[in-house]
Amino acid sequence: MLAIEDRAMPRVLIVEDDEAMAVALRDGFTYEGYDVRTATDGAAGLKMACEGAHDLIILDVMLPRMSGHDVCRALRAAGERLPIIMLTAMGEETDRIIGLEMGADDYLPKPFNPRELLARVRSLMRRLGEREEGETATAGREVVIGKCRLNLESRS
Fold first, then answer.
1. What are phi and psi of 44, to 5 degrees?
2. 13-56: per-residue pLDDT in tens?
3. Which pLDDT band holds residue 90 (cuts at 50, 70, 90)?
4. 3-class SS of residue 106
5. Burial classification of residue 113, based on how many CB atoms lie within 10 Å of its CB (0-12 exposed, 13-18 middle, 19 or more buried)
6. In this structure, is the dihedral angle defined by the CA atoms of residues 32, 35, 133 and 141, taken in order, positive or negative?
7. Element counts in the chain: helices (H) and strands (E)
8. How far is CA 64 from CA 43, 49, 69, 85, in A?
9. Smallest Cα–Cα separation from 69: which of 49, 48, 88?
10. Dihedral sign, CA of 74, 84, 22, 30?
11. Are 121 and 56 within 8 A, CB to CB?
């Protein structure tokens, strides 16, 4: 696996059911040079996370078909270590603690400043990019979730 800085465009998966929010996030990240994929419900987001090579996931908590908490929990149970930032209107301290304990790397309550979100993403991407070339967190492992087969080394 190449370090993030070696790629032309880091790939971000945004899982958000609010269309206006999803478009704003997609456009903002695209403008900043990210390759962006979007999903509008939790089940589709989990499927895309399993099928694609993403560098980071931005995950709403309250999603149709499967909650963001369940998506995060499934990814972590499968051994996936890519950074996850949860965005949600549920901003109470208890909600943030639950999100972080389920495996999220960061938790940002709505409404939020887009510049702060971008700064948090850059921080996580820097840490991911600090891995030595060829190093992966879960090298050589494959996980199967239903009909989804995820090679954690190649992220395919």
1. -65, -40
2. 999 999 999 999 999 999 999 999 999 999 999 999 988 789 99
3. confident
4. strand
5. exposed
6. positive
7. 5, 7
8. 8, 16, 12, 18
9. 88
10. negative
11. yes
Alpha-carbon distance of 74 to 93, in angstroms, equals 23
Tokens of 126: 């820097």
Query: Which amino acid is present at 50?
Result: C
Listed residue (38, 95, 41, 42) closest to 73, CA to CA: 42
Query: What is residue 124's predicted lDDT score, i.e. its pLDDT?
Result: 87
Q: 65: exposed, middle or buried (C-beta count within 10 Å: 0-12, 13-18, 19+)?
A: middle
For residue 137, what are the CA distances in angstroms to 79, 88, 131, 132, 133?
9, 27, 9, 11, 12
